[in-house]
Write a structure and sequence with these properties.
150 residues; elongated; binds ligand JUQ
Length: 150
């Protein structure tokens, strides 16, 4: 059981390191553009780095929740791959947004799509597990045994 989850743990840890990297970039941008706390706004170059970090942080709890729900109840391997794709998308989002507001869009759409896939896997996994545990019906078994009738 724990052995199956090591990929999810690795992706989660990589995500935490990525968030730390984004936060470091905000610290550097504060120095570069002389924006001292508690100020959160400065030249557009600073604002974009600041917002990119804040937006990635805002979605991190949602990402971790669906990564693990999908990993535990659907497939640890597929979820880990989706997790890597999401983190890659968010990295490109951060770099793109740091350059221009327009540059964030393509990676943002990509990350949002990967998140929808993880939400889909999570939903399937939870509904199937619910049926197995509480209704004692295995939907996968039902579909397989109905196939010869088609
Ligand atoms: C909220 C809750 C769940 C979403 C996709 C999938 C699931 C996102 C919207 C962002 C940003 C950044 C910016 C990664 C149409 C439903 C979701 C979900 C949103 N969507 N926005 C925005 C703030 O630069 O504008 O990071 N991320 C999303 O998903 C699409 C939304």
């Amino acid at each position: 059981m724990m052995d199956d989850m090591v990929g999810l743990a690795a992706v989660s840890l990589l995500g935490v390191l990525e968030q730390a990297y984004f936060s470091l970039q905000v610290i550097y941008a504060r120095r570069k553009f002389s924006v001292s706390p508690p100020r959160t706004s400065g030249p557009p170059e600073f604002d974009r780095v600041f917002r990119a970090q804040a937006n990635c942080a805002e979605y991190f709890p949602i990402f971790i929740t669906v990564l693990w729900t999908s990993g535990v109840f659907f497939s640890p391997g597929l979820s880990s791959v989706c997790g890597l794709l999401y983190l890659y998308g968010r990295f490109r989002y951060f770099c793109g947004y740091s350059q221009s507001a327009q540059g964030r869009l393509a990676p943002l759409y990509f990350s949002a799509q990967v998140l929808w896939v993880l939400i889909g896997f999570s939903s399937l996994g939870v509904v199937f597990s619910f049926c197995r545990v509480y209704l004692r019906v295995d939907p996968i078994q039902v579909v397989w045994s109905a196939l010869p009738l088609v």
